Amino acid sequence: MKAISTERLVLRPIDLKDAPDLFAIRSLPEVHKHIFSGPWESVEKAQEWIQNIKDGPRSFMYTIRPKRQLDEDHDGGEMIVGVIGLNRWDQVHFMYDPKVASRGYATEALTAFLVALFELQPKRLSIGTLVGSDNAASINVLEKCGFVPDVPQTLRYEPQSAEISEEEELNALQGIGYVPTGDSYSLFFIYPKPGLAE
Ligand SMILES: CC(C)(COP(=O)(O)OP(=O)(O)OC[C@H]1O[C@@H](n2cnc3c(N)ncnc32)[C@H](O)[C@@H]1OP(=O)(O)O)[C@@H](O)C(=O)NCCC(=O)NCCS
Questions:
Q1: Cα distance between residue 5 and residue 24, in whole Å
Q2: Cα angle value 184/188/192 (rounded, 5°)
Q3: Average pLDDT of the chain?
Q4: Ligand 1 center to residue 81 CA distance, Å?
């Protein structure tokens, strides 16, 4: 997996050494209130999460760093401001440091991630994500990038192998094979692979 360069950001494959930075971001209440599994208790939990992503049959994650220093609180070195990737539930996951909110970073990174995803997993026909119904900023980002609301709205799916089959993908497009989370607060958004016939 290669790093991705966008106009303002560098997306690098996640590494265990990123755990302290991710732990700091996820510990912020305004961040973890939107993440279903909540805050991590320790940096070790962040390491465990990173290791799970690395061990998952399809999951992968990038750290996000601005190319230029944009934040006076940092010393000019490269800082991690967020992550984006495919989690172990085969859904898009992203989180950002609120210090860099509303600069369009989430939109820029998600756009680049979607291109990478369909290149890395060419058999994939769609990608979805669960988002809290009160998470207006994330819903805004998803819609700006071409995600549309889908039913059923509370879905969870865990891939068992790295190989993506045609049947599995066609089922995913119809919501078959997903297990309800029992969470009535979440909305499910889906992004069909560009170029698929209606
Ligand atoms: C939600 C989050 C990803 C947004 O990141 P970001 O870098 O600020 O996103 P962007 O700047 O690309 O776009 C945010 C958009 O939502 C808008 N927005 C910001 N706060 C908003 C709010 N409370 N209500 C509605 N829209 C809001 C912004 O104005 C912007 O839209 P615009 O470009 O049309 O003006 C970030 O705040 C975050 O990490 N939140 C916590 C974790 C999380 O929610 N993860 C996603 C779980 S699915």
A1: 24
A2: 165
A3: 86
A4: 14
Nearest residue to 131 (alpha-carbon basis) of 155, 110, 113: 155
Residue 9 has what pLDDT?
94
Give the span between the Cα atoms of 30 and 84, in whole angstroms: 17
Ligand 1 contact via 102 beta carbon (within 6 Å):
yes
Give me the CATH number covering residue 168: 3.40.630.30
Centre of ligand 1 from the C-alpha of residue 142, in Å: 9
- Among the listed residues 63, 51, 58, 57, the one whose alpha carbon sits nearest the alpha carbon of residue 26: 63
pLDDT in tens, 141-186: 999 999 998 865 455 667 778 887 777 766 666 665 555 555 666 7
pTM of the predicted protein model:
0.86
Does residue 198 lie within any of the structural domains? no
Ligand 1 and 101: CB distance under 6 A: yes
Write down the residue that tokens 């390491």 correspond to: 47
Domain limits at 57? 4-192
* Residue 16 lies inside a defined structural domain of this protein: yes
What is the total count of domains within the chain?
A: 1
